[in-house]
Amino acid sequence: IEIFRLYTDDKVRKRKGVRKMANFLLQVPNKFRTFSISASSNGAPSGVPQAGGPVILELPLDKIRRPLMRTRGNDPQKVKDLMDSIGEIGLQVPIDVLEVDGVYYGFSGCHRFEAHQRLGLPTIRCKIRRGTKETLRHHLR
């Protein structure tokens, strides 16, 4: 078994080139030294459950539709503060995302989403729950 560690100690983190995020151990059997994550045809992870509660996953920013994005502007100072925080310690609270028929919709987390965009990060941690088209219509009202 190989052990991988994310370091929070600044000296070790800089030497290893690891972002300061968490301190945990991931034990992986040697036969799984390389592995991949499968995705659906629209490029989003296939790990979203068919039933049950929400799941937390990293999703590509470009796979999340933001239908209410143009309804209000974000506070630039809040976005900047989040950019500083995300750059230092990572995203602490995932954004809420609704998955309907394999398409992801974001209705909250506008400042966190913009901070990720402006930082040039390709993905964002999301709390994903499945919904129906009726649930989506309710959110769009």
UniProtKB/TrEMBL annotation:
Keywords: Antioxidant, ATP-binding, Disulfide bond, Nucleotide-binding, Oxidoreductase. Its EC number is 1.8.98.2. It is an enzyme of class 1 (oxidoreductase). GO terms for cellular component: cytoplasm. One of its GO terms (biological process) is cellular response to oxidative stress. The keyword ATP-binding applies. GO terms for molecular function: ATP binding; sulfiredoxin activity. Coiled coil: none annotated. Residues 57-136 form the ParB-like N-terminal domain. SMART domains: ParB. Gene3D superfamilies: Conserved hypothetical protein from pyrococcus furiosus pfu- 392566-001, ParB domain. This is sulfiredoxin. It comes from Davidia involucrata.
